[in-house]
Write a structure and sequence with these properties.
Distance between the termini: 36 Å
Number of strands: 9
Strand order of the largest sheet: 8-7-6-5-9
Order of helices and strands: EHEHEEHEHEHEHEHE
Number of domains: 2
Number of helices: 7
CATH superfamily of the largest domain: DsrEFH-like
CATH class of the largest domain: Alpha Beta
C-alpha cells in the first residue's frame, strides 16, 4: 500500500502525486490519498477511475478527506490510451497572457502557474511553448513559472518568446529562459503543429 499526503497542495498537485503513486504501485494494490477539499477528491477520483481503479472516499474531519484506490492491475492513463503521433505533428502550447481565464486577476495568476506546472508533468511533453503579448512576462526575471519552464527546457522543450512583445514591455534584458522569437517563426510553429493548446 502507498499513502499520498496531498493536504495543502493546490491543483493539480494531488492528481500528479496520485498518478505517480499508481505508477510506482506497478500492478495490483492500494493507494490511499489524503486531501483537504472536495474538488481534489473529485479530480483524483476521476483520474484514478479512468486509469482502471476502484475508488472510494470519505470525509474524516473538516478539511481532511481520505481517498482509497484499489487497483487490480497496472494503471493505464488517458495520455497512454491514444497515439499522440497520430494527430499529425507536434504539440505547441501558445500562452498569450500572464494569467489564465477571465474574471479575478489574482486567481488567473494562480491558474497560469498551475497550468505551466501541469504541462511540465505530462508524460509526453510539447515540442514548443510560445509566449506572446502579456504571456511574455512569464519567461522573464521575477516570474513564478521560471523553475518549471527551466525544467521543461532542460527536457528538450523549445521555449520561445515574442521579441516585439518583450520590447513593448521593456523586458528584453530580463528574459530568463528560452530564446527570443519573431512573428514569422511563431506562425511557422503554429502552422506546423499537430495540436495547439491555449490556456
Amino acid at each position: 500500500m502507498i499513502e499520498v499526503n496531498a493536504i495543502g497542495n493546490a491543483c493539480p498537485i494531488p492528481v500528479i502525486k496520485t498518478k505517480k503513486a499508481l505508477s510506482e504501485l506497478g500492478g495490483a494494490g492500494t493507494v490511499t490519498v489524503l486531501v483537504d477539499n472536495e474538488t481534489a477528491v473529485q479530480n483524483v477520483t476521476k483520474m484514478a477511475q479512468s486509469a482502471g481503479g476502484n475508488v472510494t472516499s470519505r470525509k474524516e474531519e473538516d478539511k481532511k478527506y481520505v481517498i482509497t484506490i484499489e487497483m487490480e492491475k497496472s494503471p493505464v492513463f488517458e495520455d497512454e490510451k491514444e497515439d499522440k503521433a497520430a494527430r499529425g505533428g507536434d504539440t505547441v502550447v501558445a500562452v498569450s497572457s500572464d494569467k489564465m481565464g477571465e474574471g479575478n486577476d489574482e486567481l488567473g495568476h494562480v491558474l497560469i502557474k498551475s497550468f505551466i506546472f501541469a504541462v511540465s508533468q505530462l508524460e509526453k511533453l510539447p515540442k514548443t511553448i510560445i509566449f506572446y503579448n502579456g504571456g511574455a512576462q512569464l519567461t522573464c526575471e521575477g516570474s513564478p513559472c521560471l523553475d518549471d519552464l527551466k525544467n521543461l527546457e532542460s527536457e528538450g522543450v523549445e521555449i520561445l518568446t515574442c521579441g516585439t512583445c518583450l520590447d513593448y514591455y521593456n523586458l528584453k534584458e530580463k528574459l530568463a529562459v528560452g530564446s527570443v522569437s519573431n512573428m514569422y517563426t511563431i506562425v511557422e510553429k503554429l502552422n506546423g503543429a499537430g495540436l495547439i493548446i491555449k490556456p
